[in-house]
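Aim 2 progress update. The chain analyzed this quarter is reproduced below.
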Amino acid sequence: MSGAEDRYQRKIKTREELRELLGPRPRDLKVVMCHGTFDLVHPGHVRHLTYAKSRADVLVASLTSDAHIAKANYRPFVPQALRAMNLAALEDVDYVLVDERPTPLENIAFLEPDYFAKGYEYVDGGVHPRTTEEISVLETYGGEILFTPGDVVFSSSRFIEETPPAIGVEKLLALMQSEGLSFDSLRASLESCRGLRVHVLGDTIVDRYVYCTAIGSSTSKTPTLSVKLDEQVEFVGGAAIVARHLRAAHAEVSFSTVLGADEAGRFVRDRLEEAGVVVHAVTDRGRPTTIKSNFIAGNHRLLKVDQVDNLPISSRIVEELQETLAATEADVVVFSDFRHGIFGKESIPRLAESIPAGPLTVADSQVASRWGNILDFSEFDLITPNEKEARFSLGDQDSVVRPLALELYRRAQCQTLVLKLGNRGIITYRAATEDVRAFFTIDSFADTVVDSVGSGDALLAYTSLALRATGSTVTASILGSMAAGVAVEHDGNTPVTPEQVLEKLARVEKRALYT
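Predicted structure tokens:
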């Protein structure tokens, strides 16, 4: 922590510390208290705080904790530790209090400020019902309500939704500081993932990229697009790329899947074995290996064609997979579900019961465009759905993200939930304690997005390894986010290496330290 940050940090107090510092009424010094979200401190906030301080000797700025902010989506944008620091940096603010309660009523009664300041919008056109409640508390001990000038009104929500400020590094630093982490400790944690034994079970996909040059319409009578084939490239995808990410991170990886008796199946086996993955593949002669072909012209994806059979695998194949699960020693077991036959209502319980005791259990169900539900994987240690999958599983299109994530966390009965939010990063939920907050957010660290498909697989791999190696949800979430940031900067399913993650960390550290 720098000297300036330490000076500001000393202004941030608990309510017990504040009551002792302020003393009981009547006081020699008048105390005014302001309360708000202060997600982005803007000129309207500064005017409000400056006027409040002019009416008293001591200004206490109280802010709503992250857990009680549910207005607008993706809020709070700035986490409470950083919001508190922003207020503490203002000269007029003497003390900052993070209010862990849904309203300021309890702390008004607890601290008994001489004045409680509100913006003029809370009285213009009539007193707001919540303000009436605050006035009632003030009257119990002789405090007064104070309305500040409101001729300059700004909307933090509008600023955030229209042009989100680029403060991802500052938010990351605040999170790391709160958990006692450093960039050196993150690098050491990445190194500690080496040699972990991981068993991945899931649907294999061959991702085919067909690069073309657009020629135009084939005839004047139909709107058929004509293209010239330039190049065709194939990558292993689905659960297979999860296995390759893990192997690239120097884990010892076993991979169980179902393949067709075809060239695509042989391609998958060859690529995985070349990478050092131990493949336990059941051959199903009645279904093809899934191939997803993307036709691309320039930077535009023209068409996607899937060769797939999504019917459930047979009971015999489920039994074979169960036997492999039970017999394979692992530190981490990952179920990677693309709902192409392996996982279903009948197979999931049987497969889950076959996991030996001891390993970290992880599930990722990328089923937003097909039938399936992340809640089918209940009581796993870690799940990593995206927002669309979370909304689908809960039948909820209306809730803002944080309450949505909390409900999914509760319903899934998991130990850790990492909810992927696309270019907005992630939100992680974990079991809260007296010293550990229930959730935190991490922004995306992708510098240039080339291909966003597959970033979740890289996140899944590195988050799983780091969580098992360190037991720290914050460390795991940061390293997973860095891996995802690397993955989107490359076209196609290319395994992310620790060296690339370290390079990404170094770039973030350089921005953080201004070196």
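The two ends are 16 Å apart (CA to CA). The longest strand covers residues 204-217. These observations will guide the mutagenesis experiments scheduled for the next reporting period.
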